[in-house]
Design brief:
single chain; 296 residues; alpha+beta; Pnp Oxidase, Chain A; 8-stranded antiparallel β-sheet; 7-stranded antiparallel β-sheet; 17 strands; 15% helix; 42% strand; Pyridoxamine 5'-phosphate oxidase family protein
Length: 296
Protein backbone atom coordinates (compact mmCIF):
# COMPACT_ATOMS: atom_id res chain seq x y z
CA UNK A 1 0.00 0.00 0.00
CA UNK A 2 1.27 3.45 -0.90
CA UNK A 3 2.09 5.72 2.04
CA UNK A 4 -0.19 8.44 0.68
CA UNK A 5 -3.03 8.49 -1.81
CA UNK A 6 -4.20 11.39 -3.97
CA UNK A 7 -6.43 12.90 -1.27
CA UNK A 8 -3.61 13.24 1.27
CA UNK A 9 -1.25 14.53 -1.42
CA UNK A 10 -3.77 17.19 -2.41
CA UNK A 11 -3.99 18.48 1.17
CA UNK A 12 -0.21 18.33 1.67
CA UNK A 13 0.34 20.34 -1.50
CA UNK A 14 -2.31 22.88 -0.57
CA UNK A 15 -0.72 23.42 2.84
CA UNK A 16 2.82 23.22 1.43
CA UNK A 17 4.14 20.32 3.51
CA UNK A 18 4.77 17.56 0.96
CA UNK A 19 8.48 17.32 1.76
CA UNK A 20 7.81 17.20 5.49
CA UNK A 21 5.09 14.60 4.93
CA UNK A 22 7.51 12.40 3.01
CA UNK A 23 9.93 12.57 5.93
CA UNK A 24 7.28 11.92 8.61
CA UNK A 25 5.72 9.15 6.54
CA UNK A 26 8.77 7.01 7.16
CA UNK A 27 7.29 6.15 10.58
CA UNK A 28 4.60 4.08 8.84
CA UNK A 29 5.57 0.42 8.65
CA UNK A 30 3.94 -2.91 7.93
CA UNK A 31 5.35 -4.83 10.88
CA UNK A 32 4.46 -4.75 14.57
CA UNK A 33 7.66 -4.20 16.53
CA UNK A 34 8.13 -5.65 20.03
CA UNK A 35 7.65 -2.26 21.71
CA UNK A 36 4.36 -1.82 19.84
CA UNK A 37 3.24 -5.33 20.76
CA UNK A 38 3.98 -4.63 24.43
CA UNK A 39 1.99 -1.39 24.25
CA UNK A 40 -1.05 -3.13 22.77
CA UNK A 41 -1.15 -5.77 25.50
CA UNK A 42 -1.49 -3.08 28.19
CA UNK A 43 -4.62 -1.50 26.73
CA UNK A 44 -8.20 -1.99 27.98
CA UNK A 45 -9.69 -0.06 25.03
CA UNK A 46 -9.38 -0.26 21.26
CA UNK A 47 -11.26 1.88 18.73
CA UNK A 48 -12.16 0.28 15.41
CA UNK A 49 -13.31 2.17 12.32
CA UNK A 50 -14.87 0.65 9.21
CA UNK A 51 -17.61 0.99 6.63
CA UNK A 52 -20.55 -1.38 6.97
CA UNK A 53 -20.65 -3.19 3.60
CA UNK A 54 -24.44 -3.53 3.82
CA UNK A 55 -25.22 0.16 4.28
CA UNK A 56 -22.00 1.94 3.27
CA UNK A 57 -22.10 3.89 6.52
CA UNK A 58 -18.84 4.46 8.38
CA UNK A 59 -18.72 3.95 12.14
CA UNK A 60 -16.16 4.23 14.92
CA UNK A 61 -16.79 1.55 17.54
CA UNK A 62 -15.19 0.79 20.93
CA UNK A 63 -13.94 -2.59 22.08
CA UNK A 64 -12.95 -3.20 25.69
CA UNK A 65 -11.48 -6.06 27.69
CA UNK A 66 -8.94 -7.07 30.28
CA UNK A 67 -5.47 -5.94 29.12
CA UNK A 68 -4.19 -8.64 26.81
CA UNK A 69 -7.49 -8.92 24.96
CA UNK A 70 -5.64 -7.17 22.10
CA UNK A 71 -2.25 -8.63 21.30
CA UNK A 72 0.17 -9.17 18.48
CA UNK A 73 0.21 -12.78 17.35
CA UNK A 74 2.89 -12.22 14.74
CA UNK A 75 4.81 -9.38 13.10
CA UNK A 76 1.85 -8.63 10.83
CA UNK A 77 -1.18 -9.68 12.83
CA UNK A 78 -3.13 -8.71 15.93
CA UNK A 79 -5.83 -10.79 17.56
CA UNK A 80 -8.77 -9.45 19.55
CA UNK A 81 -10.56 -11.66 22.06
CA UNK A 82 -14.25 -10.86 21.73
CA UNK A 83 -15.90 -8.30 19.49
CA UNK A 84 -18.12 -5.24 19.64
CA UNK A 85 -21.32 -5.15 21.71
CA UNK A 86 -24.30 -7.00 20.19
CA UNK A 87 -26.08 -3.68 19.60
CA UNK A 88 -23.10 -1.91 18.04
CA UNK A 89 -23.76 -0.80 14.43
CA UNK A 90 -20.64 -2.61 13.16
CA UNK A 91 -21.39 -5.95 14.85
CA UNK A 92 -23.29 -7.47 11.89
CA UNK A 93 -20.43 -6.58 9.53
CA UNK A 94 -17.84 -8.12 11.88
CA UNK A 95 -19.82 -11.30 12.57
CA UNK A 96 -18.76 -13.05 9.37
CA UNK A 97 -16.12 -10.65 8.09
CA UNK A 98 -13.36 -11.86 5.81
CA UNK A 99 -10.89 -9.21 4.62
CA UNK A 100 -12.94 -6.22 5.81
CA UNK A 101 -10.83 -3.02 5.59
CA UNK A 102 -10.51 -1.53 9.09
CA UNK A 103 -8.54 1.07 10.95
CA UNK A 104 -7.80 0.83 14.67
CA UNK A 105 -6.31 3.11 17.28
CA UNK A 106 -5.18 2.25 20.79
CA UNK A 107 -4.84 5.39 22.92
CA UNK A 108 -3.41 5.27 26.44
CA UNK A 109 -4.33 8.39 28.44
CA UNK A 110 -1.97 7.30 31.23
CA UNK A 111 1.12 7.74 29.06
CA UNK A 112 -0.37 10.01 26.35
CA UNK A 113 0.70 7.49 23.71
CA UNK A 114 -1.27 6.16 20.76
CA UNK A 115 -0.80 3.51 18.13
CA UNK A 116 -2.65 2.93 14.87
CA UNK A 117 -2.99 -0.33 12.95
CA UNK A 118 -4.82 -0.45 9.62
CA UNK A 119 -5.46 -3.64 7.71
CA UNK A 120 -7.85 -6.42 6.79
CA UNK A 121 -10.10 -7.94 9.44
CA UNK A 122 -11.56 -11.41 9.64
CA UNK A 123 -13.80 -13.12 12.14
CA UNK A 124 -12.30 -16.00 14.16
CA UNK A 125 -13.58 -18.51 16.70
CA UNK A 126 -12.22 -16.40 19.57
CA UNK A 127 -13.04 -12.99 18.20
CA UNK A 128 -11.30 -10.98 15.50
CA UNK A 129 -7.94 -10.93 13.75
CA UNK A 130 -6.39 -8.11 11.74
CA UNK A 131 -3.70 -8.55 9.10
CA UNK A 132 -1.68 -5.37 9.53
CA UNK A 133 -0.88 -3.27 6.48
CA UNK A 134 0.05 0.03 8.16
CA UNK A 135 1.41 0.36 11.70
CA UNK A 136 2.55 3.59 13.30
CA UNK A 137 2.59 5.61 16.49
CA UNK A 138 1.72 9.29 16.82
CA UNK A 139 3.05 12.04 19.05
CA UNK A 140 1.24 12.84 22.34
CA UNK A 141 -0.09 16.16 21.00
CA UNK A 142 -3.70 16.92 22.04
CA UNK A 143 -4.03 13.78 24.20
CA UNK A 144 -5.41 14.51 27.67
CA UNK A 145 -3.62 12.67 30.47
CA UNK A 146 -5.76 10.48 32.70
CA UNK A 147 -3.70 8.88 35.44
CA UNK A 148 -5.72 5.72 36.04
CA UNK A 149 -8.87 3.74 35.37
CA UNK A 150 -10.98 1.11 37.03
CA UNK A 151 -13.28 -1.52 35.59
CA UNK A 152 -16.86 -1.36 36.88
CA UNK A 153 -17.80 -5.03 36.77
CA UNK A 154 -21.53 -4.58 37.35
CA UNK A 155 -22.03 -1.76 34.84
CA UNK A 156 -24.57 -2.89 32.25
CA UNK A 157 -25.15 -1.06 28.94
CA UNK A 158 -28.61 0.41 28.50
CA UNK A 159 -30.62 0.01 25.31
CA UNK A 160 -29.18 2.21 22.53
CA UNK A 161 -31.16 5.23 21.38
CA UNK A 162 -31.20 5.77 17.61
CA UNK A 163 -32.07 9.09 15.97
CA UNK A 164 -31.38 11.20 12.90
CA UNK A 165 -30.69 14.42 14.79
CA UNK A 166 -28.99 15.47 18.00
CA UNK A 167 -30.90 16.27 21.16
CA UNK A 168 -29.98 19.27 23.30
CA UNK A 169 -28.31 17.00 25.87
CA UNK A 170 -26.28 15.26 23.15
CA UNK A 171 -25.11 18.64 21.80
CA UNK A 172 -24.02 19.53 25.35
CA UNK A 173 -22.24 16.15 25.64
CA UNK A 174 -20.28 17.01 22.48
CA UNK A 175 -19.49 20.56 23.62
CA UNK A 176 -18.06 19.20 26.89
CA UNK A 177 -15.85 16.64 25.14
CA UNK A 178 -12.07 16.92 25.16
CA UNK A 179 -11.58 13.88 22.93
CA UNK A 180 -13.30 12.04 20.11
CA UNK A 181 -12.34 9.37 17.60
CA UNK A 182 -12.72 9.71 13.84
CA UNK A 183 -13.17 6.84 11.37
CA UNK A 184 -12.55 7.50 7.67
CA UNK A 185 -12.18 5.37 4.55
CA UNK A 186 -10.39 5.45 1.23
CA UNK A 187 -10.27 3.32 -1.90
CA UNK A 188 -7.93 0.74 -0.42
CA UNK A 189 -8.76 0.73 3.28
CA UNK A 190 -9.93 2.48 6.44
CA UNK A 191 -8.38 4.53 9.23
CA UNK A 192 -9.18 5.46 12.83
CA UNK A 193 -7.67 8.54 14.43
CA UNK A 194 -7.97 10.75 17.49
CA UNK A 195 -8.98 14.39 17.87
CA UNK A 196 -8.42 16.26 21.10
CA UNK A 197 -8.63 19.75 22.55
CA UNK A 198 -10.01 21.74 25.44
CA UNK A 199 -13.77 21.36 25.99
CA UNK A 200 -15.58 23.41 23.36
CA UNK A 201 -13.16 22.59 20.54
CA UNK A 202 -15.93 20.67 18.78
CA UNK A 203 -19.41 22.13 18.55
CA UNK A 204 -22.85 21.03 17.38
CA UNK A 205 -23.91 24.03 15.31
CA UNK A 206 -27.35 22.52 14.65
CA UNK A 207 -29.15 19.22 15.35
CA UNK A 208 -27.64 17.92 12.10
CA UNK A 209 -24.17 19.47 12.00
CA UNK A 210 -20.87 19.52 13.89
CA UNK A 211 -17.69 21.45 13.27
CA UNK A 212 -14.19 21.33 14.70
CA UNK A 213 -10.79 22.88 13.92
CA UNK A 214 -8.08 20.81 12.29
CA UNK A 215 -5.14 21.56 14.56
CA UNK A 216 -1.56 21.43 13.32
CA UNK A 217 -0.36 17.83 13.47
CA UNK A 218 2.16 15.53 11.84
CA UNK A 219 1.69 16.90 8.28
CA UNK A 220 0.59 13.52 6.89
CA UNK A 221 -3.09 14.51 6.57
CA UNK A 222 -4.30 10.92 6.44
CA UNK A 223 -7.79 11.64 7.77
CA UNK A 224 -8.27 14.92 5.92
CA UNK A 225 -6.98 13.29 2.75
CA UNK A 226 -9.46 10.46 3.14
CA UNK A 227 -12.31 12.93 3.60
CA UNK A 228 -11.26 14.86 0.53
CA UNK A 229 -11.56 11.66 -1.51
CA UNK A 230 -14.55 10.12 0.32
CA UNK A 231 -16.54 12.24 2.80
CA UNK A 232 -18.08 9.31 4.68
CA UNK A 233 -17.08 9.38 8.35
CA UNK A 234 -17.87 7.97 11.76
CA UNK A 235 -17.38 9.78 15.07
CA UNK A 236 -17.19 8.31 18.57
CA UNK A 237 -17.55 10.42 21.72
CA UNK A 238 -17.33 8.75 25.10
CA UNK A 239 -17.87 9.78 28.68
CA UNK A 240 -14.67 8.74 30.42
CA UNK A 241 -16.50 8.50 33.76
CA UNK A 242 -19.91 6.97 33.07
CA UNK A 243 -18.98 4.93 29.98
CA UNK A 244 -21.75 6.43 27.87
CA UNK A 245 -20.96 6.49 24.15
CA UNK A 246 -22.24 8.66 21.33
CA UNK A 247 -21.65 7.25 17.84
CA UNK A 248 -22.36 9.37 14.78
CA UNK A 249 -22.23 8.55 11.09
CA UNK A 250 -22.51 10.93 8.16
CA UNK A 251 -20.29 12.98 5.89
CA UNK A 252 -17.42 15.29 6.82
CA UNK A 253 -15.82 17.87 4.55
CA UNK A 254 -12.62 19.85 5.11
CA UNK A 255 -12.82 23.63 4.82
CA UNK A 256 -9.73 25.75 4.11
CA UNK A 257 -9.77 29.38 5.26
CA UNK A 258 -7.87 32.19 3.58
CA UNK A 259 -5.90 32.71 6.80
CA UNK A 260 -4.58 29.13 6.73
CA UNK A 261 -7.11 27.88 9.25
CA UNK A 262 -8.63 24.47 8.54
CA UNK A 263 -11.95 23.21 9.83
CA UNK A 264 -14.06 20.12 9.27
CA UNK A 265 -17.84 20.30 8.89
CA UNK A 266 -19.74 17.09 9.63
CA UNK A 267 -23.32 16.45 8.51
CA UNK A 268 -25.17 13.84 10.55
CA UNK A 269 -27.04 10.87 9.08
CA UNK A 270 -27.60 8.85 12.26
CA UNK A 271 -26.68 9.05 15.95
CA UNK A 272 -26.63 6.20 18.47
CA UNK A 273 -26.39 6.95 22.20
CA UNK A 274 -25.67 4.04 24.54
CA UNK A 275 -25.68 4.85 28.27
CA UNK A 276 -23.11 2.92 30.33
CA UNK A 277 -21.79 1.23 27.18
CA UNK A 278 -18.23 0.82 28.48
CA UNK A 279 -17.17 -0.65 31.84
CA UNK A 280 -14.22 1.72 32.25
CA UNK A 281 -14.14 4.70 34.61
CA UNK A 282 -11.11 6.95 34.14
CA UNK A 283 -9.71 9.62 36.45
CA UNK A 284 -10.23 13.30 35.63
CA UNK A 285 -8.16 14.75 32.78
CA UNK A 286 -5.07 16.88 32.77
CA UNK A 287 -5.42 18.79 29.51
CA UNK A 288 -2.61 18.65 27.00
CA UNK A 289 -0.39 21.75 27.03
CA UNK A 290 -0.61 21.71 23.22
CA UNK A 291 -4.36 22.39 23.22
CA UNK A 292 -5.22 25.80 21.72
CA UNK A 293 -8.04 27.72 23.39
CA UNK A 294 -11.31 26.95 21.55
CA UNK A 295 -12.64 29.71 19.32
CA UNK A 296 -16.19 30.64 20.29
Amino acid sequence: METYHAGSRAVQDRVGVRELADHVGQIIGQGIKPVAAAFLELQPLLILGAADPATGRVWASPLTGTPGFVRATGPHQISITGTTRPTDPLTPALADAQDLPVGTIALDPRTRRRMRVDGQLRHTERGLAIEAERVFANCPKYIQRRESYETIADREPAQPRHATELTTSQAEFIAAADTFFLATVHEHGADASHRGGNPGFVQATSPHELTWPDYTGNAMFLSLGNLLADPRAGLLFLDWTTGTTLQLTGEARPEFGTDGERRVRFTLTEVIETPAALPLRWSLPEYSPANPPPVR
